[in-house]
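Intended use. Records like the one below are meant for learning the mapping from a protein sequence to its folded structure. Do not use them to infer anything beyond what is encoded.
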Amino acid sequence: MTCHRGGGARDPAGPDPGWSQQIVSATMNTRVAIAVITFRRPDLLKCLLDSLLAQELPEDSGYQVRIIVVDNDDEGSAGEVIALAAKDGRFPVQAAAEPEPGIPFAREKSVQLAWDDDALIFVDDDEEAPPGWLAALLDAWETTGADVVTGPVKGILPEGAPSWNRYSDVHDSTGRHQTGEALNKAYTNNTLVARHVYHSVTPSFHPAFRYTGSSDLHFFLRVHRAGFRIVWCEQARIEENVPPARTTLRWLIRRAFRSGSGDTISRLLIRPGAGGYALVLAYSLARIVSAAGFGLAGLVLLRKAYLLKALRRFFSGIGSLAGIVGINHDEYRERHHPDGDDAVPGDLEAGAGTGPADLADQRRAPVADHPDARLP
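Structure written out for the chain above:
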């Protein structure tokens, strides 16, 4: 495959000029780990690792950067790519295996491995980091003193992608927020987390989201609720290689449904009881109502972007309602079990009647023996 590294450059303007002073001061002991979890995508992983190893920092920056790759494939399909990257020498590369299938377990393994680092940066294995990405993310962390810094993801569409993709922001989060803007959530596709955060909110990733996704949303909702500050850095843009399978309306609808359901389940795990249910019901209905508004505006103004937003909002709302009774779309199950051999105890089964009240009882012991492990 063709890598796109170098397709973008750091904004020459740098961080928001409103940031007047450096709050976090990097020293020679400031250790930063970049964590990647991967599963049977060696070509994409190679593009990502090449782009990470090409990142440059000033010699006097004081940062000690290393890369952690957790392979969730029990056959070790990423081994050759990781070994090749480790020979580069620009940054140390550590390989680890997590045989327990599912995203939360691989992510938790990366947290264990970065336990003694000062910060952990999460990126996905289908992404590539343009020049200046790492410097921009670290600049934002230093300057804002935030506990979590997250940046946008820009999708690189394949040739022949349906034209509607150009009108939708489903693969493009650039421009959604201003640099330095405070947020109430983040995701693990382009985010720096300071050590004291993942030392406090443990275990980080809930096993109920084994194949559905949203374990990162659940984690960062808990982080925000615990009082930690999450900020946006527009300059720290990363790029995602979008496969053809993710450019269809079918995928968009299923992803919207899954995201809505994952949001509901995340919130009910954090806030069970009548108050939590009332809140997610209100969220669900608000999404559906807003979908009608965007749909009407799209028809009147002939704006395809509004119509696509309406479609996403509607199915997100439906998914959010489904999440109240524990229904979700196991988007990642087939990748791990293509032959249908997927009987794993404790999973959240779509349509199995497992509600959030039952999920609250599925809180397992942490994957690692973290100090003071707890779910808030």
